[in-house]
Design goal:
alpha+beta, Cytochrome Bc1 Complex, Chain D, domain 2, 2 domains, five-stranded mixed sheet, four-stranded antiparallel sheet, 12 helices, about 15% helix, about 30% strand, binds calcium ion
């Protein structure tokens, strides 16, 4: 059992962790606005194609009988080598897609021809506040505007024809390390957007802005502020009663709404998912216990006002980064002979939930991956029956903080009645901050990862483990029967970090993988009917649309996101080919050659073997782990997205201090760490990297029988 789930890989998992344009009319101000046709079925107008976020297309021109004839029609260079997570929006024959930082590209969806681009010009130093790369999950299109949120928390309305900003609002105030990676949604003329940053210590909320002028309409805070002050919303009084034993509001408390939203128009309910606490362990955040509402919860509100209607907390009193921000799907299904309006979610914690979406009542919950933190979910109380306490004792955790399922969207086919979930089995380690155990006091270091765990424990574990001998962790595409609550078929990937999913009425399911293979499965059986090696790892979900009777399948390729730290270089296309971001669009009979990427094999600069001071290496390893590993990879082994620092050129080495302490590469997203790190820290990290490089170069030089010793 343990082998199957790659027990020693803990340090990696821990973060180490159609609308058709049919015409124009004048609005009241006399401006020309687009009128959208009432046939959204043939395009991809909303984030999850429709408001229920099923990610199911009724198009059937490409189907299980002919998908083997799929070929490339066009490709577009995204101009980045970092992670790409966006769902392209296709409306009126045009595609609107975002890249890193919130850059937007508008393309002709049939030809790939560029129409315009928009760059929010995010200052590179804000990259430091990304837990998981400088990604963006997409735009929203509504009437004559395209909406996008930039990585540094600004929300923009762009002219749909030119990409010129019509209005811009700062949604975060820049006082705290918030970021935005999620896609806005537009419901009833309001632009909805949340934010991220719980790992650094922020207070989560979701805001609604008037789509016409950017005026703030309402804001819903997910965690209570100082209870001695008036609460912003009445239900925060109830929430505050579930926190105790500390001044949680001084450390933000977390609960960011960084991804998932769904809207039920029939019942006028907006649902959003809430993230983890800040810091992670409840023992620190709320030592007196309690559920800590609304962390790790699904919340239903009225979209006009933000008025609270119900909530369901997936992980009460969470200590494990078990966010409930994962994709939610709305569907009507027959359960025990009765048609129920349900909401489905597979949050990080490993259970697949089916809720009554009118009331929030739990209908069923079962494990969709290996889980050891809870035995089961009690359907009568709606609460997990826990197996562990997560206090001073270190614990192995399944799933890991990376989640049994993360943000990569799943898909639901109303034809097969199956949910297709991109899952993974990774193991995490819970080790409470030794500093906190010793002092019992709440420490919050601005600009640091304030997750309340013990970096030293992770460093020791990582340094004592031989990466190359660890079993490879796997991701899966699981076809899940939400009524029977069990997998019908499952496909094992060679890599743990793979893409979101698309289901179509052509009895097909499409998914891209971290190893660079894009596949079409038969939806009912899982058989692979078509695949293409596109040489760039994929985490984004594919979309499909039809123009002039031709059906297209489009996907963003570009590995990254959490994979920049948690990905395995041994199986990633990024490590093998670089990570060139591109948008690829396929159709039946498409015959454009796939742009071939050369294999790269970066050499390690050969250096004279030398002795290192053990004390410097240990000190450098700890600083590296705490401040560098989240982007550059555990034990200085990059997943292939950002530079592998063991392979620094002589030129980079000579500039090392300037890069880290003077911000020489800040514009590229490599932050200036002069406020956190001393010259001595940087010197130790440098020594540590040389030590790691030497270890690698000796490994590369020695044959299988070599007696070279380290
Ligand atoms: Ca988190």
């Amino acid at each position: 059992m343990v082998d199957e789930y790659s027990l020693p890989r803990v340090f990696i998992a821990i973060f180490i962790f159609g609308l058709l344009v049919t015409g124009c009319e004048k609005d009241t101000a006399g401006n020309t606005v687009k009128v959208l046709a009432d046939n959204p079925d043939i395009e991809w107008p909303l984030h999850g194609r429709d408001e229920s976020e099923q990610r199911f297309s009724p198009l059937t021109k490409i189907n299980d009988k002919n998908v083997m004839d799929l070929g490339l029609e066009w490709s577009y260079q995204m101009g980045t080598y970092r992670g790409l997570e966006a769902t392209p929006i296709v409306v009126g024959g045009r595609m609107y897609v975002s890249g890193n930082w919130g850059v937007v590209h508008a393309l002709d969806a049939a030809s790939g021809e560029k129409l315009w681009t928009f760059n929010p010009e995010v200052p590179g130093h804000w990259g430091r506040y990304g837990c998981c790369d400088v990604v963006n999950r997409g735009v929203a299109v509504w009437q004559d505007k395209v909406f996008v949120a930039s990585f540094d928390g600004r929300l923009f309305a762009l002219d749909i024809n030119t990409g010129k900003p019509l209005w811009e609002v700062d949604t975060i105030g820049k006082q705290s390390p918030y970021t935005i990676t999620g896609a806005p949604r537009v419901v009833k003329g309001r632009v909805l957007i949340g934010n991220g940053g719980a790992e650094y210590g922020v207070r989560g909320y979701i805001s609604a802005y008037d789509a016409q002028d950017g005026a703030l309409v309402w804001r819903f805070y997910t965690v209570p502020g100082d209870p001695s002050l008036p609460f912003e919303q009445p239900e925060l009084r109830m929430a505050a009663e579930t926190w105790s034993g500390t001044e949680w509001w001084k450390i933000g408390a977390g609960g960011t709404v960084w991804d998932s939203m769904t809207y039920d128009a029939d019942n006028d309910l907006l649902y959003f998912g809430v993230g983890n606490g800040s810091p992670w362990p409840r023992a620190i955040r709320s030592p007196g216990g309690g559920d800590n509402l609304f962390l790790s919860s699904i919340v239903a509100v009225r979209p006009d006002t933000g008025e609270y209607v119900w909530h369901y907390q997936t992980t009460p009193g969470d200590s494990l980064d078990f966010t409930a921000t994962q994709h939610m799907i709305l569907a009507d299904m027959t359960l025990k002979g009765e048609v129920r309006k349900v909401l489905m979610q597979a949050p990080k914690n490993g259970f697949f939930y089916v809720l009554d979406r009118i009331t929030g009542e739990l209908l069923s919950a079962e494990k969709y991956v290996a889980v050891n933190w809870a035995d089961h979910i009690d359907v009568d109380t709606g609460r997990p029956v826990k197996t562990k306490s997560y206090g001073a004792e270190s614990e192995i955790v399944l799933p890991s903080p990376a989640g049994g399922h993360n943000w990569q969207p799943m898909a639901y086919s109303p034809e097969t009645n199956l949910v297709y979930i991109p899952t993974r089995d990774l193991t995490g380690l819970f080790a409470l901050s030794s500093e906190w155990i010793e002092t019992g006091s709440l420490t919050h270091k601005p600009g640091w990862w304030n997750i309340g765990l013990d970096w030293k424990a992770f460093t020791d574990l990582a340094e004592s483990t031989d990466l190359d001998t660890l079993p490879i962790s796997h991701g899966y595409l699981k076809a899940w029967d939400p009524v029977a609550q069990k997998a019908i078929w499952s496909f094992q990937h060679s890599n743990a970090w793979n893409g979101g999913v698309l289901a179509t009425a052509g009895n097909l399911v499409f998914q891209g993988a971290g190893d660079g293979i894009f596949r079409a499965h038969q939806a009912d059986t899982g058989d692979i009917l078509w695949s293409a090696n596109i040489m760039t790892g994929m985490i984004a979900p594919p979309v499909t649309y039809s123009i002039d009777g031709e059906q297209y399948i489009a996907i963003l390729a570009g590995w990254g996101g959490s994979a920049i730290s948690a990905g395995d270089a041994r199986t990633s296309a990024a490590a093998k080919y670089g990570n060139y971001g591109r948008l690829l669009t396929f159709k039946l009979g498409g015959s454009k050659p796939l742009p071939v990427l050369p294999e790269r094999n970066l050499p390690v600069e050969v250096v004279e073997p030398r002795e290192f001071e053990e004390e410097d290496i240990r000190a450098g390893a700890l600083v590296y782990m705490e401040h560098c590993s989240v982007c550059h990879g555990s034990v200085a082994v990059s997943s292939g997205v950002l530079p592998d620092l063991r392979k620094m050129s002589a030129g980079v080495r000579s500039q090392f201090k300037k890069i880290v302490l003077e911000g020489q590469r800040e514009a590229l997203g490599m932050p200036n760490f002069s406020d956190l790190l001393s010259e001595k820290d940087v010197g130790n990290v440098y020594q540590y990297l040389l030590y790691r490089a030497q270890k690698l170069s000796i490994e590369q030089l020695k044959g299988p029988d070599s007696e070279v010793a380290l």
